[in-house]
Amino acid sequence: MQKLHSIPCLLLAAVLLVGCGAQETVQDSRPPAESVRTSMREDYTTAELVSDMGLGINLGNTLEACGDWIQGDSVTSYETAWGSPVVTEEMIAGYAKAGFQTVRIPVAWSNLMAEDYTIAPELLERVETVVQYVLDNDMYAIVNLHWDGGWIAGFSTDFDTCMEKYTRIWEQVTDTFQDYGDHLILESLNEEGCFDDLWNRYSGSDSGKAEAYGIVNDINQTFVDLVRNSGGNNARRHLLIAGYATDVDLTCDEAFRMPEDPAGRCAVSVHYYSPATFCILEEDADWGKARSRWGSPREQRVLESDMDKLKETFADKGVPVIIGEYGCVVRNKEEESVKLFLSSVAGAARSRGMCPVLWDVTDVFYDRTACQMKDEDLHQRLLAAK
Questions:
Q1: Does 242 fall in a domain?
Q2: What's the whole-number mean pLDDT along residues 235-248?
Q3: Annotated active-site positions, please?
Q4: What's the CA gap between 184 and 168, in Å, rounded?
Q5: Domain limits at 62?
Q6: Which residue in 62, 76, 133, 126 sits closest to 100, CA to CA?
Q7: N or C: which end of the chain has fewer CB within 10 A?
Q8: Domain count, the chain
């Protein structure tokens, strides 16, 4: 998700005390990097993999940074445009030291792309390098197609052109990563898989709903078909399928369909920023009044109910669930409420066999220079959810 910037479909926001110098000790205790990069466990189910993915964290506002105002045409100029320092081996190793087992890597593939949708080799190489940093620390990496300037919204008005671009992107990405093992997961979309120009939940009508959901279902099926036919380990790679707007209720709607997969290795992704007035609003808006606190018995029950709905709709029917993003803004929020919300979501997800992936941008929850969590109390509460 694109945080601290405008986002279509949903109003979503941005949302270990071992120093970087201790990296060598961690490396000595890891399995050989090459085996993690290339091994594909044939008898390992997606449910087992999701359980093993533990706690995750997003490398937010980094490789998905985009905008016409960005100066320069290098990977670095985009990577640092939204405030992130250049990603280093030490930064990623710090995630592992902090107890995270999964790193989600949002990517804007259009940043360095020719008119025929050919992605610049240097961008593919940079994403591959960051993935290798993750795998070298025996963590799981999720690579996706993120907001990417918002072109995905065009599926509702020019399906064929958008599908051509979508297909070309994934042809190149799957070719790059075809020999990687099952510690690499590919994700079909971010949260842009929704088309409010056709239908939205507040319209009071089902007119256009089937068409809107049909586009998302078609995109996800195309993704699975393309990956499975792209060669190498992609035939058996575990895949992450974006729900409708990655919204819990909209994804649990019967209009959303998981794609057919001959390998039977797909999980579903939703995001969790609820209630929006706490997680998203820093100050009052025309659609809601900002709330600084979270954690009442009713709010806890809503969280548990949402997680139960995901479990009953998907996990209990053989489709594992990854909370690809969860989080909240911190400005104008009670510190204890922020910690309680984040640890409660992580705990509720883990207790149901799901993998929660914290949305984080530069120096909000994790210090990308010191390579450690900023708040040890929050850190320990998250670890308790594992």
A1: yes
A2: 98
A3: 146, 191, 325
A4: 20
A5: 20-384
A6: 133
A7: C
A8: 1
- Rounded to the nearest 5°, which phi and psi values hold at 134? -65, -50
* Residue 281 located in a structural domain: yes
**Tokens of residue 118, six digits:** 């050919």
Which residues, 6 or more positions from 316, have their beta carbon under 8 angstroms from its beta carbon? none
Q: In the structure, what pLDDT confidence band is assigned to residue 33 with cuts at 50, 70 and 90? A: low
User: CA dist 100 to 82, 97, 120, 263, Å?
Assistant: 23, 7, 31, 28
Supply the CATH number for residue 221's domain.
3.20.20.80
Tokens 């530069």 -> residue: 362
Specify burial of residue 4 (Cβ count, 10 A radius: 0-12, 13-18, 19+). middle
**Against a cut of 0.90, is the pTM above it?**
yes
Cβ atoms within 10 Å of 187's Cβ, excluding its own: 23
* In-domain check, residue 324: yes
Asked if 87 and 130 count as a contact pair (C-beta separation under 8 A), the reply is yes
Instruction: Provide the Cα torsion 72, 78, 82, 87; round to 10°.
Output: -130
pLDDT in tens, 126-162: 999 999 999 999 999 999 999 999 999 999 999 999 9
- Within-domain flag for 76: yes
List the structure tokens of 287: 């659609």
Rounded Cα distance between 144 and 219, Å, is 14
The mean per-residue pLDDT over the stretch 6-21 comes to 37
